[in-house]
# Entry
Amino acid sequence: MPQMFVNMAVRDLDQSKAFYEALGFSINPQFTDHNAACVVVDEGHIYFMIHTREFFQTFTELTIGDPAVNPTASVAIFVDSKDAVNAAVEAGLAAGGTEPGEPSDYGFMYQRGLTDPSGNVIDFGWMDPVAAAQGPEAFAEQQG
# Structure
């Protein structure tokens, strides 16, 4: 099984660690120091590496942008239910995040956006298992 590491620059490492822990993720102390933290999204499979902006800049000669002004990517995490989507976003809002827009409910899929304190976009979503396995048309047919 492949592993995924999403690298993101953050303004305040301690604030960002607290934010992601409030979402229910954990911090792997073996890969965390004053420059970066390893956020465990799905043990063994998916991780966020959150880096101070200064440390992230060492990865490239290009200028690091401000995701709060010019987002270049968003991460979508799909969970088991609409309630889990709402709980994750509400926890993120309580931990200093913002919600960039209204929820999107397509019947077979539900999503809410969340922006972390540094401006990185994390979307939470749920998709009906039939739609996930067979496509939205199969879900529509199932609904009548």
In short: The chain has one domain: 4-143.
